[in-house]
# Entry
Amino acid sequence: MSRNSIRDTFFEECEELLEALVEGLSAMEENTGDMEVVNAVFRAVHSIKGGAGAFGLDRLVAFAHAFETVMDKVRSHDLEVDEALMRLFHRSGDQLADLVEAARDEREPDSETESTILKELEAYLGESDKQDDFSFDALSLDFEAAPMSIEPAEPALRRFELRFRPTAALYANGHEPLLLFDALAELGTLEVTADLSELPEFDAFDPNDAVLSWQLTLDTAEDEMVLHEVFEFVESLCDLDIRVSGQSPEQQPEPEVEDSTAETVTSLAPSGIEAALPQTTQDTVEDARPATAPVQGANEPRGPRPTLRVDLDRVDRLINTVGELIINQAMISQRIEELELPAVSHLTNELEAYKLLARDIQEGVMAIRAQPVKPLFQRMSRIVREASEATGKKAKLVTEGDSTEVDKTVIERLADPLTHMVRNAVDHGLESPDRRTEIGKEPAGTIRLSASHRSGSVFIEIIDDGAGLDRKRIFEKAVEKGLIAPDAELSDQDIDNLLFLPGFSTASAVSNLSGRGVGMDVVRNAVAALGGRVSISSLPGAGTTFTIVLPLTLAVMDGFVISVSDQTMVIPISSIIETIRPNRRDLHQIGTDGRVIAVRGAYVPIVDVAGNLGLASSSNDIGGGVLLLVGTEAQGLAALRVDAIHDQRQVVIKSLESNYGAIPGVSAATILGDGKIALILDPDEVVKLHPAAPVLFTTPQPRTELRHA
Amino acid sequence: MTKVLAIDDSRTIRNLLRVSLEGAGFEYHSACDGVEGVEQFTEVEPDVVITDINMPNMDGFGVIETLRTGPNRTTVPIIVLTTESGADLKTRARNAGATGWIVKPFDDGSLVSVLRRLTGHVV
# Structure
């Protein structure tokens, strides 16, 4: 693993830590007394600081340190969390996220906000906290460390006499006298004499006892302080006496008997034992170590579930291969069908099993890419906070279904549209706190984000409890912008859908938030590019709901294999509400080429798919073929007329635009079991191609393409 | 080979330790919190332990206390590796039985030389 990839994982880890931070801060807001939550927040900031230090990201370190120090005061009950401090924590969290992002992209972060927040954080710190100057410049090794280099100069040598008698605790703390002696030896010339006088008889020997002591003579140019530094971590664990002998090194020192250690040093060890000494100490320490318990087996795993980090490219390659496998399986099925075997044969049985396995593999692989929407939703709390601050409105974010899993690419590409919609919900959806109080609502509005899986699709809803859409204003605005005729007669739903037209914006003034040239049409296109759709429902006075419906995956989908004017095509099952074999009685002609079908009392326009795609209609008989009832964004229900439905199967989506070019009404292509390429229709687009479609919706719009993840 | 067990909740720090310690010829093992660290200790039987202080589930002090006084108590060196540098924390660690204290960010060379000194490890 290179340092670069460690850096990458650091930023990945930061993302996770920032998520935990946001989550922790929200939890803190709800329950200020929970110290576990405060600890978790503290740890998140602390870990970011620790990692940032390793990469020399000084600004990030300094900011995290200030943040952490204030959080630590909360942790130690020195500081009470009030509303103002909570807001500061939120802003600090946002700033930390910005600094991380800037560090990752190697650009300069916005220093103005940073210094404002830093000042505010520091205001919470007392003088003593500030003095605890946090320096990352020097590596501090607080240890029984000896200087690593010895001065080559020849300063005056002094002779030190040391007496060293470890207690049992010294060994228990993992220290090793031999290593201390090594450190001393690096300071000069060391002579070590062991005192073995306290060694008990062999049968009275307790390996946990400390019975050895040493007398050392060190000739060194170093200061006495340096000697003490060697013993810094063990001084409280031993009897230590260091003194300058007062004699020049040339003279042999007289053995002295110290009062304090008199009882331990009764006689000097014979010099012959010196050589054997290190081994002796080593053994003593070894013996003093209690045997570690036998391995208890890897049962009862604790903590988080083990995970494996895999390069996304590898997963995508796997998904591609599985796509090929599905196609291959379809081809084999086709070939076997052509053999016209008896309905129940070994081969067809095995083939069924193969199909199930292939499907399992495919679902399993897709699950690898699936991620909970939680981080995405969490990011929105910042948007709500910022938007409410900028507009002077009060808003809180409530999330539901955080654990709903969606394809990673979908989550990534949903971030921008969702941000925009949440911002809009605060900016345009909610009323001012005064207005809300006036009409009996709570001053703080609620933005509700919810995610759920329903019938093979992912539903994401953005719900506000604001004023609801002002349809009169929307209509006026659309007329003003020349999008519709002043005398156009539109249903409520039609008016709501005007929001999705390019260039439409209800905000008359360019506010701080909206008016950035991004309208709901961009949102709609972004969602459509993911194979999904957006719809609006609104209740005046009660609020607005935006619903995004997305396919579970971008790589495969369930489709009907249909034929249109001798062409085999595929239409996504998710878009089909029902299939109708028309009864001549229910068909009606309107005008010269408008045809409708009565479906349970409602008239639904019939759209001839072949005609709209520019193919020769296979028959002029409107009663023939099959009708597919689809719900379209633009004009509600429509009945697509096709010649026949042949099969229902899972198809692998292959991008058409990147391999060939854009075709109106077609979102992608796929390979069928017989090896032939079939186009995948986009019902919405096909309907728009309808010559009889209302003028309003014929405005050319950026095409959207289903793209492989 | 000399075995090191590093206990730190930061994946980044664990990665950095892995690179410098494996590079220096140590056999590297790691755990992401105190509880896992103590478990790993029994499993791995390391020659030296490096532990962070601020960790979920069980903090560094908990690790030191458990390793020094628990049922499987040990005398292997335990080094604290943390961004903290407060004197009271150091005293607390020492009293609990820590062998040494290194402040993050750590310098590869110094860390390795400290570990060598404590374990007698030779490359």
